[in-house]
Amino acid sequence: MTSYRIAQLPGDGIGPECMNATRIVLDRMVADIPGLDLTFTSHHAGAQLYRETGETLPAAVLEDCIAADAVLLSAIGLPDVRHPDGTEVQPTMMVGLRRALNVHSAVRPVKLYPGAPCVLKEIGPGIDFVVIRENLEGRFASSGGGSKVGNEVATDTMVVTRKGTTQVSDFAFRLSQRRNGRPSDGNKMVTCVDKANVFRSLAFFREVFFDVAKSYPEIHSDAVYVDAMSLYMVQNPWDFDVLVMENQFGDILSDLGAGLVGGLGLGPSAEIGDVHGLFQPSHGTAPQLAGKNVANPLATILSAAMMLDWLGDKHNDNVCLEAGVALEAAVAELLRAGDVRTPDLGGTSSTTEVAEAVADLLALAAS
Ligand code: ATP
Fold first, then answer.
1. What would the mean pLDDT of 130-152 be, rounded to a whole number?
2. Nearest-CA residue for atom 14 of ligand 1
3. Statement: 1-104+265-367 belongs to CATH 1.10.260.40
4. pTM for the predicted model, two decimal places
5. Which atom from ligand 1 is nearest to the alpha carbon of 295?
6. Which of 20, 84, 296, 307 is the most exposed place for a label (fewest CB within 10 A)?
């Protein structure tokens, strides 16, 4: 039996509540599923820690994240905790953690589960695509840098490298190979989302993307400008399978995607490198909800399902792979049944009640 050690960072705002809820589910799975062995080391990191100590991510915590088999993070940041230059402490911490773990590709599924609220009147053949966000370069490469000239001019620089773009594009095609294609006709398709008509850096991103596409002739490849893609995501989201894009575009379009399929409370993410994996919901710390036990924990729980899938795939561990599938299925069943849901999804259940219900559904499915 393989044992996996998970570095757990509950963070700020609703982060600890969503993490506790996720632990209710994972701990029950470890107790009930023979051969599933997860242990956790929990660490303080983030904005509140910065307020108290001047550090967001102490060296010992970073070392433990690097040594662990996976990192499970809930949400980091508080709007009133800022660096002297006015920027929030969360991005610098996250950029540092991502660089240290070398997690180059962020996977953000945009999947409409039956029963989840959808803002679209027509949902056609369904919504099931993935935003792949280049996670180490792009506009975020400037985080903590940039320049300010007097009080008049400020710049941030977009960084696009052949290596980074090749890595993320290759990741996108390999993910498409594992998926069932786009909902409209089942065709596998990877779409490069850029602004190649304006920026040299993004014309280069597109050029490298199509170089990589040549290695995957069985998968259809195309490219769309980011402004047009924002429209298509709302008008015909079922025509897409895997989208790959620069870091900041991915940050923005994945929130738009979450908005299509029930909101940020249902938006998980997996940040993957060649060695490490970092799993966290797409949402932030929603400070106005913190401490009330009303936040939706499903994005964190679905991120944990992605963690199990990644660990199982990496270690050739069927128990872990099946646990990931079962966890996603339990969330899907909860949404389909519709009687236990947090206020963001129109319900009255608490964060804890949702977690307990997911754990009960898992136990029911296994019995
Ligand atoms: P960040 O910039 O740190 O990603 P953000 O600006 O995207 O943060 P969030 O904190 O993610 O902001 O949330 C925006 C709003 O979405 C919240 O104020 C809240 O209303 C809603 N929201 C986000 N996550 C959840 C959740 N898990 N449960 C319920 N509502 C949520």
1. 91
2. 286
3. no
4. 0.95
5. 28
6. 84
